[in-house]
Amino acid sequence: MTADTISAILVSGIVLGSIYALMASGLSLVWTTLGIFNFAHGALMTLAAYVAWTVSDGAGLGWGLSAGIAVSIAALIGAGILMERLVVRPFYDHRDILLITVMTTLAATIFLEKGIQLLWGARLKQLAPIWPGKVELFRTAISGQEMLIIIVAPVLLGALAFFLRTTRIGRGIRAVGQNPDAARLIGIDVSRLFIITFAMSAVLAGLTGILLGSVRLVTPEFGAEPLVKALIIVIFGGLGSLTGTILAAYLMGLVEAALTFFIGIYWAPSMIFLLLIIVLLLRPQGLLGKVVR
Amino acid sequence: MSDPANALEVDGLRAGYDMSDVLLGMSLHVGPQERVGLFGPNGHGKTTLLNTISKVIAPHAGRVLFMGEAIDGLPPQQIVARGLIHVAQANRLFPDMQIMEILELAAFTPRAQADRKANLDYVLGLFPRLAERRRQQCKTLSGGERQMLSIGVGLMCAPRMLMLDEPTLGLSPKLKDELAEAIAEISGRGIPLLLVEQDIAFILSLVDRMYLVDHGEISREIRRGGEVDHQEIMNMYFGADGAR
Amino acid sequence: MAGNARTFMLGALIVAGLLVPFFVEDTYIRHLFIVAFIYGIVAASWDLSLGYAGIFNFGHIAFFGIGVYVTGLAAKLIGIDPWLAMLIGGFAASAAAVLVALPVVRLQGVYVVLVTFAFSQLVLQLVISQSAVTGGTQGMVRVPTIELFGHNFLRDYKFGYYYVAFALLIVSAACLRRLAHSDFGLSIQALRDNEDYGVSRGISVGLQRLKVLVASAFFAGLAGGFYVIYLRVASPEVFDFSVVSLVLSMVLIGGTASIYGPIFAALGLTFVSEGLANVEGLAEGRFILVAVAMVAVLLFLPKGLASLLPVLRRLYGRVASARRQR
Fold first, then answer.
1. C245-256 per-residue burial string, b: 16 or more CB within 10 A, e: under 16
2. Predicted confidence (pLDDT) per residue in A116-153, tens digit
3. Mean of the pLDDT values across residues C301-318?
4. In whole angstroms, what is the distance from residue C245 CA to residue C252 CA?
5. Residue A250 in contact with residue A21, Cβ under 8 Å?
6. pLDDT at res. C220
7. What integer pLDDT is reported at residue C310 of this predicted model?
8. Nearest to A185 among B81, B86, B102 (CB)
9. C-beta atoms of B92 and C326 within 8 A
10. From residue B43, how far is each of A111, A206, A269, B76 by CA, in Å?
11. Fold that domain C26-324 belongs to in CATH
């Protein structure tokens, strides 16, 4: 194995890891705060990509990429708030909220996917890259967009971590996730924070969708595979730990890059699922999760 | 008889969980600078009363007035914003946050934020142990420390009245004394108090007036100097007229 | 319903079912019945693991899909007799269930959801990646179909298929019902409602869960086997979210208190869903309606889920205690 090979795997792994970290962090945020899994997380990515495309691309409104991104983010904040109100909030006090929201967010996914298909058709689309062209990193050639991802992901996630650590609302969000009853007693409007969290998560999904939209082809099922990967990462990293999620994301990126290199792209995905199941067998709480019972 | 000067007035309150009511028409009041105790066996409604006042659960009937204003229709965060602070029983608080983070966070409402610095200094002065462990995570605290933190959190909310639910639950006599001193100190600043306790000596040492809670209602009101009927208390706890 | 009345009702329904092809000659409607019966088996068997045993098994559709593909491959590539291939499909699904049971048995609440979900994705990945064998995303075509005493199933306007499907449904329902009401069924319900107590009474949690999954998987696999033999086509679409939602809706709307509930729900939902597919422009849109309907049911008809609640309360209890320990 040459230095170039190692470097290629490393770079590929970091690119993948950055994407995964962005994808999974939104899911992890919703889980740690609201205690539910948002199965529509992937569909939100898809929505963002489509809105960005419609606004930016010549075949749509043709307003250019910046407008596309801005409108897309705004659309996603709206979608996140709407989703929280419609398929999560009605079931807040329900004892079985986890199961129910699995089903309602699944329903939301279908709603979005099929809706997108109806509105935009099934033909493939692609977003223009924010950073076009190619770049070289550690003697490996990657696209400018991928380079962008490597930079943007840690910055965004760092900002998120800072927000959660130090600001009043950020700490409030953490508090709500740890003990919503106690949070109420210090004057926190738990519902409002739920909405904020959900919207933030939607924005994270949206950004992922926008960044990926130029690296991959955009179809109505665009977000399905990232969703599954994100879910795996959240489990892998340990439920309830955002740090664990991010760590797991990068780890998984590297493992996947290595596996793809050594056993090929057909077997790699299956191997990863298998690995996950094995990890869960040996260490159910994931990397940094709390031990469950 | 409603007196707008009263800090807290509860009138005919009915509330409970699921199907059955625990509070069966409770009425009491706390005067402007009073320290009032609530005493009685478990399950008779003391905690439920506090939970209903702070809106953790909603009442089915009755009124609650705080500083002359009706609060029974308000959501919990607005009640906190007005300064009626409920320090809950055995509160786990926020396990993965540090003491300092929690105290700072507790000054969440705008009113509390305004006094944040002053209140923080006060709390850390009142409970030096919290100051020592300020970077420690909540889940690693001992029972006594967590109780102090609980009260500290209540103070950070800039209370105009405090409701304490069994603050000394499970604590050693020494810690109980420390807490009693702290509570007396807090109350000495002019903050009216509603104190729920099982430890009768503790309550009597702190309050001016005490209510006995029996099966979701107030059975007796005892003033300072008034006789505490031990027989009545025994009956409440061990049932003179059969099981509950 | 009193015992006799109930038996009478069932008997009447079975007779009605047997008579349907004589009154319904339209091939398409017969097709709907057949599909409904198949989904009915999948939903009813899912009810066994989800409702009765309280295992939130998200991978049940994977068992169905395994049945589809194993049977299809066995019949097409290896040339095994389609009748036998269907059975093999069922057993293959059961074998997969053993694999899934390993982690699930040891994990609590939310992890079960995730692992079983990951498992179903794993199966999907395998199917897609081994495209040389499975046809990948294009699927398999020209799967051989069953034959009985020279009767040609392909030329009789689905008359024969109807009865095979109906027979499978009756047999599956009977077996599932038997299981649910047997000592085994009682033990899994006991474990669902109060695991600690069940353990203290000597019930082996791991073993019982394994048995439930194996049993419920078998019928799902069998249904899948018949599905591929009947349609003669296999595609990864069987793993779609929309299918999962549809069948899950059948389980929920049908209620988990009995094995029959999901079957009736399957009939109802299949006709509604397929019926909508024919309305102008609703071919894809009907899934949106299913999605909306699902949320609506959850919002407004908790009674339909009333029997699910004790199960989930327990599930939730575990999640809640997991969260408390975070």
1. bbbbbbbbbbbb
2. 888 888 777 777 777 777 777 777 778 888 888 999 99
3. 53
4. 10
5. yes
6. 95
7. 53
8. B86
9. no
10. 47, 50, 55, 23
11. ABC transporter involved in vitamin B12 uptake, BtuC (1.10.3470)
CA angle at A79 for the pair A74 and A84, rounded to the nearest 5°: 130
**pTM for the full model?**
0.84
Q: Is B153 helix (H, G, I), strand (E, B) or coil?
A: helix
Residue B119 belongs to domain spanning? 8-238
Task: Parse chain A into domains and list their residue ranges.
Answer: 3-282
For chain C, domain boundaries? 26-324
A275 at interface of C, judged by CB pairs closer than 8 A = no
**CB-CB neighbors (< 8 A) of A228 in chain C:** 117-118, 121
* CA-based nearest residue in chain C for residue A278: C103
The CATH architecture one would assign to domain A3-282 is Orthogonal Bundle (1.10)
Most confident of the ranges B183-187, B202-206, C35-39:
C35-39
Q: What is the pLDDT of residues C200-227, one digit of tens each?
A: 877 777 888 889 999 999 999 999 999 9
ipTM for the predicted complex comes to 0.88
Phi, psi of B158 (to 5 degrees): 55, 65
Nearest of B104, B102, B135 to residue B120 by alpha carbon: B104
Chain C neighbors (3+ CB pairs < 8 Å): A, B
Alpha carbons A282 and A288: distance in angstroms, whole number: 14
Cβ contact, residue pair A184, B56, below 8 Å: yes
Distance of residue A17 Cα from the nearest chain B Cα, in angstroms = 26
Q: Would you give the distance in Å from CA B141 to the centre of its chain? A: 21
